[in-house]
Amino acid sequence: MSPSTNSLPFRLHMLQSLVFLARDTHTYIPLFPYFYSILSSPLFTGQMKPSTSPAICLAHNIKVLPALVQTRPLFDAAFRWTGMLFLEWLNPWTSCLSFPELVIAINTSLRRLMKENTNGKFGKWCKEVTQTSERISKRIVEDRDEFDGASADVLDKWETDKRQSTSEFSDMMKRSWQSLEESEGAAIPIAQQQKSKKARIQ
After folding, report:
1. Which of 20, 64, 130, 197 lies at a C-alpha separation of 20 to 30 Å from 173?
2. Is 128 exposed, middle or buried, given 0-12, 13-18 or 19+ CB atoms closer than 10 A?
3. How far apart are CA 2 and CA 179, in angstroms?
């Protein structure tokens, strides 16, 4: 996937398809490198340019207007969508006994981004994700100690029960979906902004 900010909506559309495929088939797809390429991009780590653009909607586009690159409206839209997809991708694996090992590299990378980034909203999100995943990992490690020598049926039942219970990421996911729905409902699609701008010029 192209690392260009201009192609960010297209990359997020592709990620969303893979995230939903992994979720619905309960198949692990290693997508974190693609999330990291977005979260560590200049849009998330660089300085924002002044912009008078209203809130924008990325869901109906595959490219970003050059005037919106490195602006707050684009960051807000990208952050909401990327954060929601990341949680959708990670959440199903909180019911997996190997979750503690799965998130080691993820938490290390998110902590690195927290140190390199001065954006308070993004830093708070990274901190909440790492702390939540660490709590889940600690609980799973404690449960695994009780499964020493257990049969495969016992382990499968544990994972099935966990999938049917409420995840500790549920609150974050609920807030992410609510924020995305509210913002997308009030936002103006990029194509419509471009059309309005041309009309003003004429």
Report:
1. 64
2. middle
3. 27
